[in-house]
Amino acid sequence: MGRKAGAVAQGALDFDEAPGAAPAHVPALSRPLDALFDEVPADWRPLTDAFRAQPVGRALIDRVDAARQAGAVICPDDVFAALRLTRRAEVRVLILGQDPYHGPGQAHGLAFSVRPGVAIPPSLRNIRKEVQRDLGLAAPAHGCLQAWGQRGVLLLNTVLTVEAGQAASHAGWGWEALTDALVAAVAADAAPKVVMLWGAHAQRKAALMQQARQASEAAMGDVLLLQSNHPSPLSATRGPLPFVGNGHFGQARAFWAERGVDLDWSLPQ
User: Fold this and answer.
1) To 5 degrees, how large is the angle CA 251–CA 256–CA 261?
2) Full-prediction pTM beyond 0.70?
């Protein structure tokens, strides 16, 4: 599936807890999940509509709604932010996370990102350091990656909701069936793509993406698959494929430059 930077890294941590002060208010899910499905942009709707018509989709929606109605604080409030920000036909890079941050005010629907004013989690700090090391771009004071999403970087978690304070609490509820379909669709779409898989959890999707690309008969050489350890401090500098120094951001920029596209990794200050 195109060029490949390294093999699967094992044992990487796939979620974070951010220390330090954070807003006391937790932007949480406040409406029935079906209402959010109704607002998914039209280009992604065939995939999300097919999911919620299936038993696994209905079971997930019912379970999330029941938990919310029973008083659970479920995050993020903007469950489909990644799909809203990044048009399907404009996906240039896929960065795959695990589940939303579960600390106060952290989750806002984009993998690895936090809203301005929220303490920057450890993995995101390492992502920012690698961008600066690789490209020389200064990091802003905030940790919001929304600008990347608007430029074609799909920041997708494999699980789209979490209970506040309970890491990975919605893993296995059914989101994985939807996000597998989204990941496969991105891989199958004929346009060139860069895929960044950091850590063992994300790297399990490599075979799914390769199969989807092959089935679509799209050019395999037009996908650049990049793999390394997760950016968590527990694995970012460890072998065999440390995240720090992996050069993924520069490789992605070079891949798109060869195709006449300036991939901008800068963030507004």
Assistant:
1) 140
2) yes
Provide the token pair at 64: 């999330």
Q: What are phi and psi of 160, to 5 degrees?
A: -105, -5
Ordered domains of the chain (ranges, CATH)? 4-14+27-257 (3.40.470.10)
Q: Which range among 63-67, 102-106, 168-172 shows the weakest confidence by mean pLDDT?
A: 102-106
Structural contact between residues 173 and 158, judged by C-beta atoms closer than 8 angstroms? no
User: At a CB cut-off of 8 Å and minimum separation 6, what does 232 contact?
Assistant: 12, 13, 14, 16, 122, 123, 126, 199
Specify the DSSP class assigned to residue 239.
S
The span from the CA of 246 to the CA of 133, in Å, is: 10
Secondary structure of residue 5 in the 3-state scheme: strand
Mean pLDDT of 72-88: 97
Q: Are 28 and 74 within 8 A, CB to CB?
A: yes
Q: Which of 14, 16, 99, 134 is catalytic?
A: 99
Catalytic (active site) residue 99: yes
